[in-house]
Specification:
Length: about 500
């Protein structure tokens, strides 16, 4: 069969065996039904009227209440007029105003964490023209600055000893509101909830307690699940924030489908709300579909996705993207699985967005750098480099620790595959410099993999659009065949087919 896979700004063709299986998110297995547009208002009003585990906003707010509304950046979540961000803000504002809150006492914070600080253009896309014009020109929409020492507060450490730093505007407000989306995420299972606050309104030192090899290379991290040490750290850091503030965040999260449409709306106390939202999200995200383990995964990598232009061409971010797929698909991968992926791999690092990645790449080329974790000792050097920090603060670049954490993630692909082939690389040396194999075409890569790793008749899974659509976490059709469930449990089954941990 002939298939097209993402490649640069276009596609690359592959001739694969007719026995190849294909999975496209939202198409191969239909998403749960989304809420029709004419029913969205009712869904939001019902959710806000009966929040889970805490009073509604009209009881928490009154005249004189200061409010911070924390909104995700543009990386995920959709930007259509009916996006969760836009609608949730609209209905939340109505309830706050009805409770007597003054407009002047409301501050919006874009929770970019270590992502680029949002520009005016970004803010327009996130909020839409009406909300943007209402709040931007009065300075009531700002982007989190994790290096603004005057507006970060040190909250000590969690019971585990992890440092907690927090945006001071949020800490000082009477009512902090988190707006998030529950979509599959390779880091801890889902976005939204406590992951939002633990990564979006803190600094690199807090993030360095979990986005590091000691956490990401543990067996509980792969495949992606909601019970990993990283996930637990997210929850602990955010609950520590709540403890120090003296009150919880009010959360409004939406479970989203492949096209970022709302499947369900949840509001309230994150600790009680997240387990309920996850149960609904599981139906869309953890898809029990595969009837066999796959020896070869085939997909394509565009030049621009997720973190921006250059994501699919510079070798470090390319490794992170490969690892994200391994995290999502590990349950259906054989023990000798090979990845074949198209990428321009042309040496375009996008220095304007990642000014430090070339330096990281060059460091990795030395003889004393055998695996990606070997570079871990340079974390503090990159995270405190003042040139890179200034660029993060004032020229909308990614914080240097963000790129460094991508290296930690990148090793996961190496840990869980027999080989990774990059096809179509214009500068193959960059891929080889990361320990990857290169071939000109998908067909050449597959033939080489057959000879060396997977044999003559491998089970092949093609994944077109895996970087273009909101990804799923693929599972075996029979849950007993999964190596780990959605919540990090590695189950053992008795001869009667009953799970021993439940017997």
């Amino acid at each position: 069969m002939r298939l097209e896979f993402e490649y640069g700004h276009g596609t690359m063709e592959a001739q694969l065996p007719d026995s190849t299986d294909i999975f496209i998110p939202g198409e191969t297995v239909k998403d749960p039904d989304y809420i029709p547009e004419d029913k969205l208002e009712e869904a939001y009003l019902n959710s806000l009227a009966d929040p889970i585990g805490m009073p509604r906003l009209s009881e928490l707010a009154h005249k004189g209440t200061t409010v911070t509304i924390i909104v995700p950046d543009r990386v995920k979540g959709g930007e259509q007029p009916t996006s969760h961000r836009k609608l949730s803000i609209k209905y939340i504002l109505n309830e706050l105003y009805n409770a007597g809150v003054d407009k002047k006492d409301i501050l919006f914070i874009i929770s970019n964490g270590l992502h680029p600080r949002s520009t005016e253009t970004d803010a327009k896309a996130i909020f839409g023209p009406e909300l943007f014009n209402e709040f931007w020109h009065t300075g009531q929409i700002i982007s989190h600055d994790s290096e603004d020492q005057e507006h970060m507060i040190d909250l000590g450490v969690t019971r585990r000893g992890d440092p907690v730093f927090m945006n001071k505007y949020v800490f000082d407000s009477d009512l902090p509101i988190l707006i998030g989306h529950v979509q599959g995420n390779p880091y801890g299972g889902y976005s939204g909830g406590y992951k939002h606050s633990a990564t979006g309104i803190t600094n690199w030192r807090s993030i360095a307690s979990h986005h590091v090899p000691a956490v990401m290379h543990r067996p509980d991290f792969t495949p992606v699940n909601g019970g990993s040490l990283m996930r637990n750290k997210f929850d602990e850091i955010s609950m520590h924030m709540e403890e120090k503030m003296g009150h919880p965040f009010f959360c409004c999260d939406a479970v989203l489908d492949t096209n970022s449409r709302q499947i369900a709306i949840y509001s309230g106390y994150a600790k009680e709300m997240m387990p309920l939202s996850w149960k609904v999200a599981d139906k869309r995200t953890y898809v029990h579909w595969a009837e066999k383990k796959y020896d070869v995964l085939v997909f394509g990598m565009p030049q621009k996705f997720h973190y921006g232009d250059g994501m699919g061409t510079n070798p470090i971010m390319m490794m992170q993207a490969l690892s994200a797929q391994v995290l999502r698909f590990k349950r259906i991968m054989s023990d000798h699985c090979v990845i074949i992926c198209s990428s321009l791999c042309n040496g375009f690092f996008h220095d304007e967005r990642w000014p430090y990645l070339k330096e990281m790449y060059d460091l990795f080329q030395h003889d004393y750098m055998n695996t990606l974790p070997d570079i871990n000792r340079y974390g503090e050097y990159f995270a405190t480099n003042q040139e890179y920090i200034r660029k993060y603060r004032f020229t909308n670049e990614l914080h240097p620790f963000h790129g460094f954490s991508m290296i930690s993630c990148g090793h996961i692909a190496e840990m869980n595959t027999s080989a990774i082939y990059i096809v179509g690389a214009q500068e193959p040396g960059y891929a080889r410099g990361m320990g990857l194999k290169t071939r000109a075409t998908f067909e050449e890569a597959l033939e080489d993999a057959k000879k060396k790793f997977v044999g003559d008749n491998p089970n092949i899974l093609a994944l077109p659009l895996t970087f273009k659509k909101a990804s799923v976490h693929l599972c075996m059709k029979n849950p007993k065949d999964d190596c780990m469930d959605e919540y990090g449990h590695c189950h053992v089954w008795d001869e009667q087919g009953r799970r021993k941990d439940l017997v």
